[in-house]
Amino acid sequence: VGHIGDSEGGCLGPGSCWRAGCGTPTIFSFAELNKEYKNQTVFPVGKTVKYTCQPGYVKHPQISPTIMCLENQTWSEAQEFCKRRRCDHPGEPENGRVIVTTDLFFGSTVNYTCNEGHRLVGASQRQCVISSSGPRVRWSGDVPVCQSKYVAAGAEQPDKKPNTAQKG
Fold first, then answer.
1. Which of 43, 62, 65, 76 has its Cα between 20 and 30 A from that of 25?
2. Number of separate helices (H) and strands (E) present in the chain
3. Residue 115 or residue 163, greater confidence
4. What are phi and psi of 133, to 5 degrees?
5. Of the candidates 152, 87, 75, which has an alpha carbon nearest to the alpha carbon of residue 119?
6. Would you state the torsion angle of the CA atoms of residues 114, 119, 124, 126, taken in this order, to the nearest 10 degrees?
7. Which residues form the Sushi domain (predicted)?
8. Cα-based distances in Å from 140 to 31, 59, 70, 103, 145
9. What is the enclosing helix (H) or strand (E) of 100?
10. Cβ proximity of 20 and 73 under 8 Å
């Protein structure tokens, strides 16, 4: 327990002690507190802590990834100093189209549909996910194929009657 004037806090007498500073820093979905601060629970007024962007996010060039313990023992407001990474265009299937529901950034989903007379072969949705090869992002799976219902039906006919002789 400190004395009056200590930066950690102090006591005026038994049972009337206080803690000067801030508690555990703010938790963000887009960034992680740097390792050197992880086990600390009390931070003195004026202390600045730094964050690192989570996978799928990239640091915004003009915004500092820090917050500070203020005089009123609260953490300063943080701007979104990490922004979502953007996936490339997900690709259009031949005889179909991609529907972008929100945007092409990390965490977003696109849907695929086929033109009339075609059926979807493959996944109807893809997500912008973290690439297995590093901090980049990519689309999950592959672009589906829109196959003609008529070609598919015609191609399957001989298989349905395997014992039928074909005249040519």
1. 62
2. 1, 13
3. 115
4. -95, 15
5. 152
6. -70
7. 20-84, 85-148
8. 23, 23, 43, 15, 15
9. strand 96-100
10. yes
Residue pair 8/31 in contact by the 8 Å Cβ criterion: no
pTM of the entire predicted model? 0.68
Read off the tokens for 142: 């592959």
Quote the radius of gyration of the chain (alpha carbons, Å).
29
DSSP letter for each residue of 13-63 = STT-EEE-SB-SPPP-SSEEE-GGGTT---B-TT-EEEEEEPTTEEE-TTS
Pair 123, 145: CB distance under 8 Å: no
Q: What six digits make up the tokens of 39?
A: 């086990």
Instruction: Reply yes or no on whether the pLDDT at 31 is more than 50.
Output: yes
Query: pLDDT tens digit string along 68-113?
Result: 999 999 999 998 999 999 999 999 999 999 999 999 999 999 999 9
Name the one residue in this structure whose structure tokens are 């400190």: 2
* 44-54 as b/e: b if 16+ CB within 10 A: eeebebebebb
